[in-house]
Amino acid sequence: MMIESLIDVNVFLKLLKEKKREILFTAHAVSQAKNRNLIGEDEAGIGIFVQDITLGMPHRVVEQSSEKPGERKFKAYYLSSSGGYMCYILTMDGQISLITIYRTSKRLQKNIYKYRKARGYG
Asked: Which of 3, 51, 61, 72 could form a disulfide with 65 if both were Cys (CB 3.0 to 4.6 A apart)?
């Protein structure tokens, strides 16, 4: 059973920055990024993800249950330069692993905008 809970963005950022972690990309994440035209066919890394998690501020973060002990799993939404949001599903333990990446749907974008506005985030 998948359990999800909204967590404070600042808590997520603290976890990201509390220690230096290696960033790994699963084969699935790279494959999906190529299929979704987010990176070129010859790229092995996903630069937009690295840029977002090192310099960006997520708009919403949901923690998901993880099957592995000691691992935390998140769904993080970052504002995209092309409009809407990029969604990253990642895990953190001794490293940061990107599981998959996708652009949000228009319906989900509207819900996130409403959520942020209702809570005074703009």
From this structure: 3
